[in-house]
Write a structure and sequence with these properties.
19 helices, Transporter, transport, mainly alpha
C-alpha cells in the first residue's frame, strides 16, 4: 500500500464502516441463538460487560495500530515494530488476520446465500400455511442441494466484491452511507411490529430480567467469545480501517459509538425474534436453526406473516452484505500493500474465498461424510475454529503489540486522549483485557 492512502470522507463514514464490519451474522443470526442456548438475560448482561472490558479496549488497540502505521496491516505492523526496536516478524500477524477473515468470509458467504434464498421464498409466499414439518424438510432439502447453495454463494460474493473493487470512497463509503441507515430503519420497523405480538412482554422479561442461577462457566465463556466475534475484533480488519481514519477523529468516541450501535442491533433483533418465537409458544433455544426454521414457522402463523418475514430476511441480507464488504477490504488492502492493483487484489480474494466456500457448501451433501478434524465437516470447522480460536489469538497478539511493544508517544498520539487517557487505556488492556482474551482463547481451545 502506498504512503498516500484513501481516507474516509467524514467521521460518520468511519463509524458506519466499522459498524458495518461488526454488524452482521453475529448480531442477527448468532446472538439470538447463542442467547437462547445460554439463558437470555444473564448472558446478555455478561456479554455487554465483556464488550466494555474486553471488546472496546482491544478494538481501540487494533484501530490505533492502523492509524499510527497508515498502511495495510502487514506493512503497518512491520514499520511500527522496527520503529519500536522489536522484531519485524510482527508483520506476520497481519497475514494471520487476513487468513482468519478469509476463513470467516468463506462460510459467511455461504450462510448469507441462505438469506437470499429465504428472502425470495418469503416474498413468493412459500411459507404461507406450511406446517412445521414442511418448513423443516424444505430447509433440509435446500442444504442438500449443492447447486442451489453454490449459486447463492456465488451471487452473494459477486455482490460483495464488486463494491470492494470500487475502492474506499466510491465503494465502501457510499454503500455504507446508504445501507446502514436502511438496516437500522428495517430493524426499528420489525421491533415496532414485535410490540403488537402476544410474546412482546415475555421477550422483554426473558432478555432483560436476568436469573443468575442460570450462569455457568460455559455461559461466561460464550459471552466473552461472542463479544469478540460480534465486534470483528482480532482479524486486523479494523487495523486496515484505522489506516483510513481521519486525523481529527476521536478514537475512543468512535469505538464506543460502534460498540453501542452493535449492541443495539443485537438487542433490537433479539426483541423482534423472541417476541415472535414466544408468541407462538416456541423454544428460544433452537440453536442455529432458529433463523431459518423456527422463524418461518412462527411468522407463517401470524397475520401479515409473509410480509414481515420478507422484511426480516431483507434485513439479514443487508446486514451480512455490509459486513462481508467491510471484512473483505482488509484482505484486499494486504495484497495492495504488496504492490498489487486493487482490481487484481479483489479478483484474487474473490476467487480464493469462492473456492473455499465451495467446501462449506458441499458439507451438507457431497462432503457430508468428510470429517477431517474432530469429527466435524468443513463447514463446522471453518464456522467454529476461526471465530472461537483465531479471533481471540489475533486479538491477544494485537493487544500485546499495542500495549507492550509500541512506544508510548506513538500510542498517545494515535489514541488522541492525552496522557491520563492513555494510562487508563493501557492499564485496562494490560491487566484486564489481555488476561480475559487469554481466557477466551483457552475456552476456544478446550
Amino acid at each position: 500500500m502506498s504512503e498516500t492512502l484513501e481516507r474516509w470522507g467524514s467521521k460518520r463514514a468511519f463509524i458506519l464502516a466499522v459498524t458495518g464490519a461488526a454488524v452482521g451474522l453475529g448480531n442477527i443470526w448468532r446472538f439470538p441463538y447463542v442467547a437462547g442456548e445460554n439463558g437470555g438475560a444473564a448472558f446478555l448482561l455478561i456479554y455487554v460487560a465483556f464488550v466494555l472490558l474486553l471488546g472496546i479496549p482491544v478494538m481501540m488497540a487494533e484501530i490505533l495500530i492502523g492509524r499510527a502505521g497508515r498502511r495495510g496491516p502487514m506493512q503497518a505492523l512491520s514499520r511500527l515494530a522496527v520503529e519500536a526496536g522489536a522484531s519485524r516478524h510482527w508483520r506476520w500477524l497481519g497475514l494471520f488476520g487476513a487468513f482468519t477473515v478469509f476463513c470467516i468470509l468463506s462460510f459467511y458467504s455461504v450462510v448469507s446465500g441462505w438469506s437470499i434464498e429465504f428472502l425470495v421464498a418469503s416474498i413468493n409466499g412459500n411459507f404461507d400455511g406450511a406446517s412445521a414439518a414442511e418448513i423443516g424438510a424444505g430447509f433440509e432439502a435446500f442444504l442438500a442441494n449443492p447447486g442451489l447453495l453454490i449459486f447463492n454463494h456465488s451471487l452473494f460474493l459477486f455482490m460483495t466484491m464488486t463494491v470492494v473493487a470500487a475502492g474506499v470512497a466510491k465503494g465502501l463509503e457510499r454503500l455504507n452511507n446508504l445501507l446502514m441507515p436502511l438496516l437500522y430503519g428495517l430493524l426499528l420497523l420489525l421491533a415496532g411490529y414485535a410490540t403488537t405480538t402476544d410474546g412482546f412482554g415475555t421477550a422483554l422479561s426473558w432478555l432483560f430480567l436476568p436469573s443468575f442461577g442460570d450462569v455457568t462457566t460455559s455461559v461466561v465463556l460464550h459471552a466473552m467469545g461472542h463479544a469478540f466475534f460480534t465486534l470483528a475484533v482480532g482479524a486486523c480488519a479494523l487495523m486496515a480501517y484505522g489506516a483510513y481514519m481521519p486525523d481529527e477523529q476521536s478514537l475512543p468516541k468512535a469505538a464506543f459509538a460502534v460498540a453501542m450501535l452493535d449492541i443495539s442491533v443485537a438487542l433490537l433483533a433479539g426483541i423482534a425474534i423472541f417476541s415472535v418465537v414466544f408468541a407462538q409458544g416456541m423454544d428460544p433455544a433452537d440453536g442455529p436453526g432458529l433463523m431459518f426454521v423456527t422463524l418461518p414457522i412462527a411468522f407463517s402463523e401470524l397475520p401479515w406473516g409473509a410480509f414481515w418475514l420478507s422484511v426480516f430476511f431483507l434485513l439479514l441480507l443487508l446486514a451480512t452484505w455490509t459486513s462481508a464488504i467491510n471484512l473483505a477490504e482488509p484482505m484486499v488492502a494486504t495484497l495492495q500493500g504488496l504492490g498489487w492493483r486493487r482490481s487484481v487484489s479483489t479478483a484474487v480474494v474473490a476467487l480464493s474465498v469462492w473456492l473455499l466456500g465451495l467446501l462449506s457448501a458441499f458439507s451438507f451433501s457431497t462432503l457430508a461424510d468428510f470429517r477431517p478434524l474432530f469429527g466435524r465437516n468443513v463447514f463446522e470447522l471453518v464456522s467454529s475454529i476461526p471465530p472461537d480460536i483465531f479471533l481471540p489469538m489475533g486479538g491477544l497478539l494485537i493487544a500485546i503489540f499495542a500495549a507492550w511493544v509500541m512506544p508510548r508517544t506513538q500510542v498517545v498520539q494515535a489514541l488522541g486522549v492525552g496522557e491520563r487517557g492513555y494510562v487508563l487505556w493501557r492499564n485496562i488492556v494490560r491487566w484486564v483485557s489481555i488476561p480475559l482474551t487469554f481466557i477466551v482463547l483457552l475456552g476456544g481451545l478446550l
